[in-house]
Amino acid sequence: MTILNRMFPSSAQQMLSRRSVLAGGTASLLLPSLACACGSSSDGNGDQAISVCGPPPAPIPIAILLSASPSSHASDICVQIATVLSNDLRHSGLFAPINTSWFVPNSIQNGTPVWANWSALNAEALITGNVADLGSGQMRVEFRLWDINQQAQVAGIAFDTPKANWCRIAHIIGDTVYKQLTGEIGYFDSRIAYISESGPATSPVRRLAIMDYDGANNQFLTDGTSMALTPQFNPVRKQLAFVLFQDNVPRVYLFDLKTGRQRLVGSFGEMTIGPRFSPDGGSLLMSVSRDGGAAIVRVSTSGGGMTELTDFKSINVTPSFSPDGSQIVFNSDRDGDQQLFVMGADGSSAKRISFGNGQYGDPAWSPRGDLIAYTNWGTGNFSIGVMAPDGTGERILSQGFIVESAAFCPNGRVIMFDRQTPSANGLDSRLVSIGVDGSNEQLVDTSTNATHPSWSVLLSQHEGA
């Protein structure tokens, strides 16, 4: 593994104006891999990544010590970055930030940790850094990651950037730490699109909304005049696809996240469910109903005609591409009740993969390609589960009155879904995240009821897109 050293463009206010790599070595502190029946995977450099099942590894004790130049603005931003960074690492379940009140004074001498002081706290890793006010709304943020056991620096990066970027800088630092200490990309510098629900249960206002993965920086993208449903991030562009009901007619739109403009893709049938992007971002899968049935269709994002991948003889819905675009998982009642099937991207060779009790639907393919998440119902509560693409290794992660709409994070290690519970006003709908091993379930804070999450790729993958 190498230190991240990718440069960011400087053409937009939301981008980083400069990113440089500070001197440092390669990571030697890695979370141990866990052998289990479900297997483990490699990060491509020979290092074993975190196992996707079995008991999670003990969190790495990590200390965070950031300082600021003599400026009230720099000091405030320093505290904010440290807080978000600590929350990111704790949220993953893989790191245990150490209480700053336990730190020994003067434990950094001439820019280098006093190793014995950090070892005394049982810290295995240390993050140090500095925030400096550059004036004219700019700041410089430096950070270094240290391996306490090896007594060595393992990463270091500096950013010159607008002060308004402080939150994103914290997430990027968190992802760098995650990558160095686990061997896999992180997921903190990402966003969630979802449907916000407010108002009375009999006539809720459903708006398209977007926020950081942790619920911060929420924005409403539509005004609620028309009902919005099922948002989906484009994997290669700053763009969302979603369904908007206008005059009770479902229409598929694209929302440009750079300009705020909407563009109509088309209206395709009595009911349109979806849509889901292809891995290259150039086409959409969706389900279109007609004559009592529903077919999976493929449509170019530029509009035009649609290609039917299944027929309308049964109910075929909620398609999702495999990461390489060669296969599609979907939900169909062609065998009598709702089950999961996998077919070729051209609609050929459909094969059933779900055979457990109850019915299955709402599948989502992991960006790693190793798992398919799904919703199961008909045996009491609803359940969120995962299975391998061939249907083996099925396991339930969470249950509830209604749990559905699973979406994977960029590295495939965490799922977000919506949980609906009865209340005096109907149903309370909240977003929840959970590890693919069933651990670390956490509520995501939103100001309104929330459903149908979609998780973006890392924002750095969209720079310039």
Number of strands: 32
Biggest sheet, strands in spatial order? 1-8-7-6-2-3
Measured between the Cα atoms of the first and last residue, the distance is 26 Å
- Bin the helical content: under 10%
Task: Output the number of helix runs.
Answer: 3
Rg is 23 Å
Shape: globular
Spell out the CATH superfamily of the largest domain. Answer: TolB, C-terminal domain
CATH fold group of the largest domain? Neuraminidase
| Mean pLDDT level | 88
In a few lines, what is going on in this structure?
9% of the residues lie in helices and 45% in strands. It has helices at 72-92, 115-119, 166-182, and strands spanning 18-21, 60-68, 95-97, 108-109, 112-113, 125-135, 138-147, 152-162, 191-198, 205-212, 219-220, 227-233, 239-246, 249-256, 262-266, 272-277, 283-290, 293-300, 306-308, 316-321, 327-332, 339-344, 351-352, 359-365, 372-379, 381-387, 395-400, 402-408, 414-423, 426-435, 442-444, 449-455.
Q: How does this model look, in words?
A:
The protein has 465 residues and is mainly beta. It has helices at residues 72-92, 115-119, 166-182; strands at residues 18-21, 60-68, 95-97, 108-109, 112-113, 125-135, 138-147, 152-162, 191-198, 205-212, 219-220, 227-233, 239-246, 249-256, 262-266, 272-277, 283-290, 293-300, 306-308, 316-321, 327-332, 339-344, 351-352, 359-365, 372-379, 381-387, 395-400, 402-408, 414-423, 426-435, 442-444, 449-455. The strands form 8 sheets. Strands 1-8-7-6-2-3 form a 6-stranded mixed β-sheet, with helices on one face. A 4-stranded antiparallel β-sheet has the order 11-10-9-32, with no helix packed on it. It has a 4-stranded antiparallel β-sheet with strand order 12-13-14-15, with no helix packed on it. The chain is globular and about 75 Å long. The two termini are 26 Å apart. Mean pLDDT is 88; it is low at 1-18 and 31-53.
